[in-house]
Design brief:
The protein has 11 helices and 10 strands. The longest helix is centred in the first third of the chain and has 24 residues. Strands 3-4-2-1-5-9-10-8 form an 8-stranded mixed beta sheet, with helices on both faces. A two-stranded antiparallel ribbon has the order 6-7. The protein is globular and about 40 Å long. 43% of the residues lie in helices and 16% in strands. By secondary structure, the protein is α/β, with parallel strands linked by helices. Helix 4 packs across helix 5.
Length: 272
């Protein structure tokens, strides 16, 4: 277990946590309400020790299918966007209930790529994030999939969470996935694959590992997680990839009782 991961998490005050669709979905594709409630409890524990938390939550399309019980196999973009419109309501409803159990309020933010590329919009995002967190409200962020189109789409929530972390000047980005971290080979294919605990040279990492395909419910994979790390680390923000399906993962990371891959931050003075 990594002491460096524990130290990084303990030192961080502003933390962005991204939750993937596979973590939020049970094996049958329905919402994992138990996970959401336990995760909200862990966030409350972080807040109680003086940390601020912003969440990037996937799962709108999964929730749309879970709610309507139809269109699961529809590939047409309009059906997908309709599922996201339905599912985003259900997703936020379940997050609201989960955090209400901890006496915490949430605020919803939905973004497209244009929001980060427009100076006025990005300033508004930054100010809203600061205001919510400073007032003890937990921001919950997702891409605005119901209205975004291909040219305007960020495409995956790994990169969305990286953009959010940079804009909010976070101290740490945590990606909760369905694997313990980055391996030299796919651990689902090779049970003896070796976990990489720390990464200081992402370029060297790319030449050392086999990058697989997208997982069952999500739009990402290891490639988008590496892309996210490339974004945050140059701004002095470390990125931690770990397994969100493990019980009490955040608390265990704090206590050195969980594994992960920590992408080390570069000099925070760059790029100024």
């Amino acid at each position: 277990m990594s002491k460096e991961i524990s130290n990084t998490l303990n030192k961080a005050r502003k933390i962005v946590i991204k939750i993937g669709s596979n973590t939020l979905a049970k094996s049958d594709g329905t919402q994992n309400i138990e996970f959401m409630q336990n995760f909200a409890r862990q966030c409350k524990s972080l807040i109680d020790i003086g940390k601020q938390v912003a969440i990037v939550s996937s799962g709108a399309q999964v929730c749309g299918v879970s709610t309507t019980k139809k269109w699961a196999r529809k590939k047409d973009v309009y059906f997908r966007q309709a599922l996201c419109a339905i599912g985003q309501v259900e997703l936020m409803s379940q997050w609201r209930k989960a955090f209400a159990m901890q006496n915490l309020h949430i605020g919803q933010l939905l973004f497209t790529r244009d929001d980060f590329e427009n100076d006025h919009r990005s300033l508004n995002i930054r100010n809203t994030l600061f205001t919510l967190a400073d007032e003890g409200i937990v921001p919950i962020i997702n891409e605005n999939d119901s209205v975004s189109f291909e040219e305007d789409s960020i495409g995956d929530n790994d990169n969305l969470s990286a953009l959010t972390a940079i804009l909010w000047s976070a101290d740490l980005l945590i990606l909760l996935s369905d694997v313990d971290g980055v391996y030299f080979e796919n651990p689902k294919e090779n049970p003896n694959a070796q976990l990489i605990e720390t990464v200081s040279d992402i370029g060297k990492l790319r030449t050392s590992i086999k990058i697989g395909e997208t997982n069952s419910f999500g739009t990402g994979g290891i490639e988008t997680k590496i892309q996210a790390a490339e974004k945050t680390t140059v701004y002095g923000i470390p990125l931690l990839l770990t397994n969100g399906s493990k019980q009490n993962i955040i608390e265990d990371l704090l206590k050195e009782n969980a594994e992960g891959t920590l992408f080390l931050a570069n000099d925070p003075s760059f790029p100024g």
